[in-house]
Amino acid sequence: MAKVYTPHDRSVPPRGQEFDTPGFLPVTPALISVLDEETGIPNIMPSVGWGWLNRLPFYLGVAVSVQEITGDYFKRGTHELLRRARDFALNVPTDRLREAVSACGRLSRAKDAAVDKFKETGLTPLPGKRIKSPHIAECPINYECKVREVVSLGSHDVFLGEVVGCFTDGVVRPGRSSAKGHSRIELAREDGGTTVLEFQGMVHLVSE
Ligand SMILES: Cc1cc2nc3c(=O)[nH]c(=O)nc-3n(C[C@H](O)[C@H](O)[C@H](O)COP(=O)(O)O)c2cc1C
After folding, report:
1. How far apart are the first and last CA of the chain?
2. What pLDDT is stored for residue 208 in this prediction?
3. What distance in angstroms lies between residue 204's CA and the mean position of ligand 1's atoms?
4. Residues with Cβ < 8 Å from 50, sequence gap 6 or more?
5. What spacing in Å lies between the alpha carbon of 49 and ligand 1's midpoint?
6. Does 121 contact ligand 1 (Cβ within 6 A)?
7. Where are the domains positioned within the chain?
8. What number does the ligand 1 atom closest to the CA of 115 have?
9. For ligand 1, is residue 78 a contact (CB within 6 Å)?
10. Positive or negative, the Cα torsion across 159, 163, 169, 174?
11. CB of 61 closer than 6 A to ligand 1?
């Protein structure tokens, strides 16, 4: 089948319409938890715009919307909190937390300054070790990150967080299958929740 080519420029679609080019690559959403130093009430924001960026020092990046461009893109409450706290936890959820993840994406501190997403979802904040922001007990991996730099790209600011610690619970089963060309990490918690992070790569060994 012939490929369809969609040119992409910097124009914003009219209200109510989507961008023509697909916006999101399918990745497991992670949850950013960050302290609000003014109220003491921490916040949670689901993010698909996150990724591994550097090993030494270990950097993760999170992309947070900073502009009102369509109904979906507005300045997140999390943006201001990250700017002030200068740290955050990046929490990888399990399949059991789907409801909580979407509730955290529906609710917004930008729209309701008093909303307490931990209370609304029943998720449990645990105190940080090397950062002020709490992490989420129910998630099997919690990276503690210090914001070292903020890169403004336009609609989103990318907060570059250096990982200064990581909590894990449950069983982490790293696996690598060069034959199938993918690597896989499986996380299983005592509560039965699991997360499978799978990377479908192009792994070729010369001996194969
Ligand atoms: C699965 C999922 C992934 C999301 N990923 C992002 C993202 O990468 N960046 C972003 O700015 N917003 C993202 N959002 C939208 C925000 O999470 C949402 O607007 C939220 O209400 C913002 O909360 P806050 O205003 O309390 O920060 C995502 C939402 C969902 C449900």
Report:
1. 31
2. 38
3. 36
4. 27, 30, 32, 60, 61, 62, 63, 90
5. 9
6. no
7. 30-169, 170-208
8. 26
9. yes
10. positive
11. no
| Measured distance CA(164)–CA(110) in Å, rounded | 28
Across-strand partners of 60?
52, 161
Residue closest to 94 by CA, chosen among 71, 67, 123? 123
pLDDT digits (tens, 9 = 90+) for 94-129: 999 999 999 999 999 999 999 999 999 999 999 999
Would you put residue 16 in left (φ > 0), alpha (ψ -120 to 50) or beta? left
Q: Among all chains, which residue has been given the structure tokens 């989420």? A: 136
What's the CA-to-centroid distance between 205 and ligand 1, angstroms? 39
Give the C-alpha separation, 133 to 34, whole Å: 5
Question: Is 45 in contact with 31 (CB distance < 8 Å)?
Answer: yes
pLDDT of res. 189: 87
CATH T-level topology, domain 30-169: Pnp Oxidase; Chain A (2.30.110)
The CA distance from 50 to 164, in Å, is 17
Which tokens go with 57? 């020092």
For residue 172, CA distances in Å to 23, 93, 111 come to 31, 13, 37
Q: 93 CB less than 6 Å from ligand 1?
A: no
Whether pLDDT at 131 is above 80: yes
CB atoms within 10 A of CB 127: 9
Cα–Cα distance measured from residue 140 to residue 126, given in angstroms and rounded to the nearest whole number: 13
Partner residues linked to 168 by β-bridges = 141
